[in-house]
Write a structure and sequence with these properties.
mainly beta, six-stranded antiparallel beta sheet, 1 helix
């Protein structure tokens, strides 16, 4: 209700009900609006119905010329709000429905979805959780009509933070999201028992990770775009470890992780495998890959001089999980 409409209405009411206690009134305004209901001391207060010339209608409680208390607001576009009002605003608990079948039931603040609520779409999708200024933000659960579901953090209507996404085909992702994209640390579980645990980037397995096959085989190493890419250690169910180098899912090298008697290397309080034709006096010498015998580190391009480290960046491989079928951290 505009200030001008209220002013015109009050002038009409004052002419008919000058300083009288609560009474019923029917008033038509020059702009085409109409009010039917109670008036107290020349102000709309109590139960009433206000009809705008444009077609909107409000029925319910009024106080000092504004919707206040419980009421129902009908828009000409088919939307309907039924719930609490404070000082003219939709505020408190209420239900807002759209003509297409969508509904929201929950908390409102100054006309916006704000607080705990449930939004149900006509297509069967459903969200239950927190809203901030009309957007899904905070903790919540989303159920898609197609069978997928998500439980966790939201930000500006996107999956964001820690969460669990269950796919309709039985896969489960548990981990971090950034604005709707799997990004950070997490794990993917397949219905057949396989699982990946490690880094995600741009919605793909990328970075350092571990892949567990259901037969007990484990690969720990580098991934890119959902494929093994770079260096890693493959552990067979019988305990044998293989040093492997991959390129976009294609295996380039694979060798047993065993010490070379003619190229001994001790570095960082570990014994290493180093294999080169340039070794001197049974000690590592030259440039090449070095892998710690415990399978925890790889130096792809190491430079050693008579058993001593000179240069080369060490890659720390992720450790195997020994706690069970799911990981809670690195």
């Amino acid at each position: 209700m505009s200030p001008r409409a209220i002013a015109i209405l009050m002038q009409s009411l004052l002419l008919v009900f000058w300083l009288q206690p609560a009474s019923a009134a029917t008033v038509r305004l020059e702009n085409g609006d109409r009010y039917i209901g109670e008036v107290v001391d020349g102000k709309i207060s109590g139960l009433g119905r206000y009809e705008w010339a444009g077609g909107d209608v409000y029925e319910g409680d009024f106080l000092a010329d504004k919707p206040h208390g419980s009421g129902t607001y009908y828009w000409t576009d088919g939307r309907v709000y039924k719930g609490q009002f404070i000082d003219g605003y939709r505020q408190g608990q209420g239900v807002l429905s759209w003509p297409n079948g969508d509904t929201y039931e929950g908390v409102f603040n100054t006309n916006e979805l704000h607080g705990s609520g449930v939004f149900s779409w006509a297509n069967g999708d459903r969200f239950s959780g927190q809203f901030v200024r009309g957007e899904r933000t905070g903790e919540g659960q989303f159920f898609w009509s197609g069978g997928a579901s998500y439980r966790g953090g939201f930000l500006a209507n996107n999956l964001h933070g820690e969460g669990e996404y269950r796919y309709r085909d039985g896969r489960v992702y548990q981990g971090q999201f950034v604005m709707g994209i799997r990004s950070g640390y997490g794990q993917m579980l397949w219905p057949n028992g396989n699982r990946y645990v490690g880094d995600f980037d741009a919605d793909q397995q990328s970075g350092l990770g571990r892949f567990y096959w259901r037969d007990g085989t484990l690969y720990r190493g580098q991934f890119r775009a959902n494929l093994q890419h770079g260096w890693g250690i493959k552990e067979q169910p019988d305990g044998q470890m293989l040093v492997q180098r991959w390129q976009s899912g294609v295996l380039r090298d694979s060798n047993p992780l065993v010490a070379k008697s003619n190229c001994a290397l001790r570095y960082l309080q570990r014994n290493w495998m180093f294999n080169a034709t340039t070794c001197v006096d049974g000690l590592a010498h030259g440039v090449g890959p070095a892998i710690s015998l415990d399978g925890s580190m790889v130096i792809p391009e190491g430079y050693f001089v008579i058993g001593r480290y000179v240069s080369g960046e060490a890659l720390q491989l992720p450790a195997a999980d020994t706690t069970g079928t799911q990981d809670s951290g690195r």
